[in-house]
């Protein structure tokens, strides 16, 4: 477990470095979000965050993990850390019901957060893995700000927001969005959620 603790510590630092860089290079929309994520990560890294032993669990989409390629984009360091912590990740669906095809093509894992490997109440960070050609249906998260970092693959949000490796996307609270993944490679996104702790705790997602 010790080496995993080091990787998790490294993950916090690397996410912090990425969000610092986004303050300079990121889009104007969501700059408050970028600064708030930084503040949460800084405080988390300085306060010896509690590490929780979770029971690792895979989902069918994990068959694409070996096909995830992040070399050469600005999130490759995050991706390397991700690959090192795969053995301790618990992959989940987060929906009580969802379309049949998604069971094979989608899953997420919360690494930082109230249900994360690193326990904290006021931010959630983790990874979403989507199969090639996955259509992730329309949904929103009332009261939750969301940002995505695209580590691998190409994905389009709402038909007009293209996200490619190294890209960043901000969704304001309650914004309705759907994703469609290009056919060539699986898509690995890192996501951040900011909301009141009461909202983040045991949040259950539902599709529209
Ligand atoms: Fe979302």
Structure, explained:
A six-stranded mixed sheet has the order 2-1-3-10-5-8. The protein has one domain: Jelly Rolls (Sandwich), CATH 2.60.120. The longest helix is centred in the N-terminal third of the chain and has 24 residues, at 2-25. Helix 1 runs antiparallel to helix 2 and helix 1 (2-25) runs antiparallel to helix 3. The model has no long low-confidence stretch (mean pLDDT 93). By secondary structure, the protein is α+β, with helices and mostly antiparallel strands. It is 28% helix and 26% strand. Bound molecules: fe (ii) ion. Fe (ii) ion (FE2) is lined by residues 139, 141, 146, 177.
The string of secondary-structure elements, in order, is: HHHHEEEEEEEEEEH
Main beta-sheet annotation: 6 strands, mixed
Count of discrete alpha- or pi-helical segments spanning 4 or more residues: 5
User: Compounds present?
Assistant: fe (ii) ion
What fraction of residues sit in β-strands?
A: 25-35%
Strand order of the largest sheet: 2-1-3-10-5-8
Cα end-to-end separation: 39 Å
- The secondary-structure class comes to alpha+beta
- Bin the helical content: 25-40%
Q: What is the typical, i.e. mean, pLDDT? A: 93
For the CA atoms, what is the radius of gyration?
Answer: 16 Å
CATH architecture: Sandwich
Instruction: Enumerate the spans where pLDDT stays under 50 for 5 or more consecutive residues.
Output: none
How many domain modules? 1
Number of distinct beta strands: 10
CATH class: Mainly Beta
CATH homologous superfamily descriptor: Jelly Rolls
Looking at the structure, what is the overall shape? globular
CATH topology name, in short, is Jelly Rolls
């Amino acid at each position: 477990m010790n080496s995993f603790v080091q990787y998790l510590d490294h993950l916090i630092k690397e996410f912090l470095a990425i969000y610092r860089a986004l303050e300079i290079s990121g889009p104007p929309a969501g700059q408050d979000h970028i600064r708030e994520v930084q503040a949460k990560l800084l405080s988390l890294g300085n306060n010896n965050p509690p590490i929780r032993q979770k029971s690792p669990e895979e989902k069918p989409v994990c068959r694409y993990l070996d096909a995830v390629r992040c070399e050469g984009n600005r999130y490759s360091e995050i991706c390397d850390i991700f690959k090192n912590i795969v053995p301790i990740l618990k992959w989940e669906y987060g929906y009580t019901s969802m379309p049949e095809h998604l069971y094979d093509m989608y899953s997420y894992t919360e690494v930082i957060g109230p249900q994360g490997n690193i326990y904290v109440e006021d931010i959630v960070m983790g990874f979403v893995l989507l199969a090639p050609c996955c259509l992730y249906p329309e949904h929103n998260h009332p009261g939750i700000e969301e940002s995505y970092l695209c580590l691998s693959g190409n994905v389009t949000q709402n038909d007009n927001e293209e996200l490619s490796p190294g890209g960043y996307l901000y969704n304001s609270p309650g914004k309705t969005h759907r994703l469609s993944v290009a056919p060539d490679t699986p898509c690995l996104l890192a996501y951040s959620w900011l909301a009141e702790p009461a909202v983040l705790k045991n949040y259950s997602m539902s599709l529209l």
